[in-house]
Amino acid sequence: MAAVHLENIYKRYKGTAQAAVEDVSLSVKDGEFMVLLGPSGCGKSTTLRMIAGLESISEGTLAIGDRKVNDVPAKDRDISMVFQSYALYPHMSVADNLAFGLKRRHVAPAEITSRVNAAAAVLGLTELLARKPAALSGGQRQRVALGRAIVREPKAFLFDEPLSNLDASLRVRTRNELVRLHKQLDATIIYVTHDQVEAMTMGQRICVMNKGRVAQIGKPLDVYRQPADAFVARFLGNPPMNVLKARLHAEHGQPTVRLAGASMSLARWNRQVGAGLPREGEVLIGMRPEEISVETAVEGANSLRGVVSGVEPLGAETLVLVELDDGAGEVTARVHRDITASLGDRIGLRVPESAIYLFDAHTEKSIPHDGLQ
Amino acid sequence: MADLPAVHAVPAYRQRASVGETLSRMLRNGGLMAVVVLYTLYSALPFVWVGTMSLRTTAEISANHFAWPETFHWEKFRIAWVDSNFAQYFWNSTLIVVSAVAIVTVLGAAAAHCLARYNFRGNRLVYFILFSSIVFPPQIILISLFQVLVEYDLYNSRLGLMIVYVSLQLPLTVYLLESFFARIPQDLFDAAKMDGYSDFEIFWRIVVPVGMPAIATTVILNFIQLWNEFLFAVVLLSDQNSRTLPLGIRAYMGDYFQDIGMIATGMMIAVIPVVILYAFFSEKLIQGMTAGAVK
Known about the structure:
The complex is a heterodimer. Helices cover 23% and strands 32% of the residues of chain A. Chain A has helices spanning 44-52, 94-104, 109-123, 138-150, 168-185, 196-202, 220-225, 230-235, and strands spanning 4-11, 21-28, 33-37, 59-64, 67-68, 79-82, 156-160, 189-193, 205-210, 213-218, 242-251, 254-259, 262-265, 281-287, 293-295, 303-313, 317-324, 330-336, 346-350, 356-360. Mean pLDDT of chain B is 86; it is low at 1-6. Classes of the chains: A alpha+beta, B mainly alpha.
């Protein structure tokens, strides 16, 4: 296996002003499982295809191991790719699909047979070797696509949303299989997905992308708990983080925001006032739904009031949507399943100060509190 | 007296249909069957009629157009094949049409693949020109084609006619195959590229096998079209020994007399290869026509 390094990578298409990928720098360590996460059109698949050699690189450097591979053809980069649609050759059997790449590399027939059988055994495909892809289920096809990547014994594996065509239960099972396989092979894996659950559960590190740029790189829980900007904060988490505009002012010398007619203390940002945090003006305030507690009578600081605008009982929990007073916006709270609320009820929401995130109103960058400085 | 056991309601699907419902179903199925039978007769009867006439003499046919053969005159096939030189015409047709279809298939598939897969300058212009040539009837180029062939010493030659057939069928073949090839997922090509295959190898190992239903469809359609082609053959071939089968059949049609019996025999000789070809390739033809109809 090998490490993969991207340095200031750009991808520009002819006739478009905006670059599809802009100044992406990323280092994937040898044996690491790195997830590229982002919404559709953020440039994650384009980045993956540049690593694979299926797209040219407009600017920047790509290295696999110690070798710069910008101009190296895809077939010579010694990496395997698993596609979203599996890309199985429909006219070939499973065995022929697995062997196809090896034949081109003039691997000895005995060696091909050995590798095909070994991969089939690992993936439970031994009894399916004679079948054609049309006679396989979605999960079986996925495993054949994986087997085709494994037999090549590459330096790195690239996965382009491989689970998106599977049903929910199969997706969970296959996710676990991939994690197990990663440990077994000690493989360098770069995995593209728009599904944050896959990213959080599979990646050792995640790289969140937005509009062609890298928004944040880090361990899944670190990125979740300390998002670099409002986009990352909203993208990770289901339901997404509530991000609202609020006005900053000082109350008894402490930074405070007024929201929905209530004052929310920002004592944790005391030392940032005048530095990262302006004394007055607009700011974005973030609250995770699971940190908000619902109470019928709420008083005191960090207490918001509003009217219930929606209730979504999910069985294990309930989502309560609340339209805050003074037109401050709508928030979603994730509460215990036994808490009842009805449309139109007046309700109070308590948000502990430790659950508050602040973002710059213009740049949307996170304003870290004193403890993170 | 003991109570009678409760009668349980019979589920709807197990209830007997009423007489009216049964009659209605029979009428609906019968109606559909009647349409199918009528259409089959409409399509097959002319063929059967020509078949019977091919085994009757012209005098017998004149006496009764539609009678079943009393005596099966199989010697008419020998007469046509040997005496009327149909063996030579059959060979000419086979040589010209098989060569033309082979060249059209190879060139057409390659061109269709390039147009479907590669984004080169002028891609859409080439496609538009090809498509435009399908729109106009080929007969409008007949006279200029005649002059061109004469200029290049290709008039009255099997090679010349073969080249004309290739140029006539190529645009439609490219058009049909391009739309099919464009539906082959790009991921297959990317995967093959990463496996180390060149552009030509990808075409040969991936596109041709996957596109075989569409290719088989164009082979059959081109073969049928060219095997029965008459106009260009009659204009561009004058030598008797170069004649194709349709021209050979034409020879039985005089200014004052038409040998109906031998015309029918000649038509049966001409139709047999098409029937055989269709019998072998019909499954692929249906696959090609319905490919993509269901996701």
